[in-house]
Input
Amino acid sequence: MKKELASKYDHKSVEKGKYQHWLEKEYFKAGDVSKKPYAIVIPPPNVTGKLHLGHAWDTTLQDMIIRYKRMQGYDVMFLTGTDEHGQKIEIKAKEAGIEPKQYVDQVAGVVKNIWDMMDTSYDRFMRTTDEYHEKQVQKIFKKLYDKGDIYLGHYEGKYCTACESFFTESQLVDGKCPDCGGDVHDAKEEAYFFKMSKYADRLIEHINTHPEFIQPVSRKNEMMNNFLLPGLQDLCVSRTSFKWSIPVDFDPKHVVYVWIDALTNYITGLGYDADGNHGELYKKYWPADLHLIGKDIVRFHTIYWPIMLMALDIPLPKQVFGHPWLLQGESKMSKSKGNVIYADELVDFFGVDAVRYFVLHEMPFENDGVITWELMVERLNSELANTLGNLVNRTISMSNKYFGGVVENKGIVEPVDEDLKAFALAVPGKVAEKMDKLRVADAMTEVFTLFKRLNKYIDETMPWALAKDEAKKDRLATVLYNLVEGITMGATLLESFMPETTERILAQLNADKRTLEDLKTFGLYPSGNKVTEKPEILFARLDLKEVLAKVEELHPKKEEPVEEAKEENVIDIEAKPEITFDDFGKLQFQVGEIIACEEVKKSRKLLCSQVKIGSQVRQIVSGIKAHYSAEEMVGKKVMVVTNLKPAKLAGILSEGMILCAEDADGNLSLMVPEKEMPAGAEIC
Output
């Protein structure tokens, strides 16, 4: 169809879109070469359902770090997104009666909304279903295959057609499938494998020569002692048992497995091209300065991912930090346990910045953090409402009451003022020191020490007493000026942690946000400025009983059925031959703590657990999936046989045995210590 030309050239309609595009791309700005680039990338959450507070904490933590880097003057890039392939998603979509792409479109939208709700300042939200990413993954897979780093192999063993699963001879029950009891036959299944061992020595050398690469040090020791030094096995990187993933373009019956697909988003999201035609963002921001990940996926990011990069001749990220978990009560958040807290619910209760404060404050450097409704209410009332909110409100109210809102520095100085100034000027350096070590909770605590010092300053100077003496009016004005100046400095430092609160405080004080360089000087607040006439409440105190009542309405507790009294149930089993004390002494039993657990693919029975025993972490495969979910296992202390010869179950190395009791109906119960015992404690 022929397009009709306008009779008159309308430059505004033609140029409006282009001009806006130029503005957004900052084509009119000269590049600031003085700014050093800084990039942070985070593992994209798998979109199998609604994300809980633990996921939101990940992104909030990284947002806080990136905001602080911007404050330091870095040219930053914050990349986030969603991992959208895999068998779990295929199953979830089928259960919902929709296609996988439709399912991930819906959930990805929810994830993005949560990130936006939490006021995260990401630069790019990418999805692993993006066309560019999928094409690059295929190119990367082919490149590694052509190089000989990926090869076609196979699983081999006893195959159950009904279960679509492989088993070893020892796993069979009376020669039958241990899951369904059906017949099995000898079979092989094709799969592509990555030659991990080829690059193991090179990775070990990199870790040894770059001690900052894996942090904290405990994570580095775990990876070296438990995985790298004992020797790496080749990694399976394709699947044929499901379809919802990226096809191997030269062998389409295979799909690329998650650890090539999801991991490579860190570079494809910046414009990496396997053919060498890289985008400008990749050239500028890679290698990333920081990978911030949960401790349960450290192995994949410090072993598999670096080796992939080495094989592709790509520089490694400068640092991988494996952060601890945020626990609800005493255990990791789990839908199956019913102890999940969702970010949007917390925001409804407390507001965005209060939630940011909770999750950042309660997370220590190496150990797991604990968050409860009771603790959040306590923190809100004591720290946010009292220490910070009351300080700002009192200062503004006194400025209005005594000077009509005008804040002036009359220069009537006393020794207590000098002490306050010295304290305030020292805080930015302390915050920087903590942030350099990624001790985020400690950094925020340092900011709040300034607010606490300002509250103490009020008690020391007693403005209400000064107001009673006309001769001390200028002294009163100086005190209030110092308070406003101190709050302005503290609010500036608070911006990375609680950006909305910073804006609200500075707006009420009629103050501008400072730079870190500005914070080297006390007294930059313009003398004669006027604060707001009507100060707002930053954080309203909450009643714990009312909060818990509302929580109960949202998540009513399930009543446990009352069991009728039964006769004692006992089981008699056939006795095994007697053993000597020396025979028994050959066995070693220890307490192990399960720090991560996942289902074994293609098995209806097996779970693969990472078990901490003393300073080491062992991988143990157990046939207990029918009785415990992977999520349920995490955090449990269990009884482990630690000197059992390693064996492969379903192709996965198992380095011990987790002990269970079994009743007459075949139900299993983990053997757990009656009292709290440390991981590694000997059972004797």
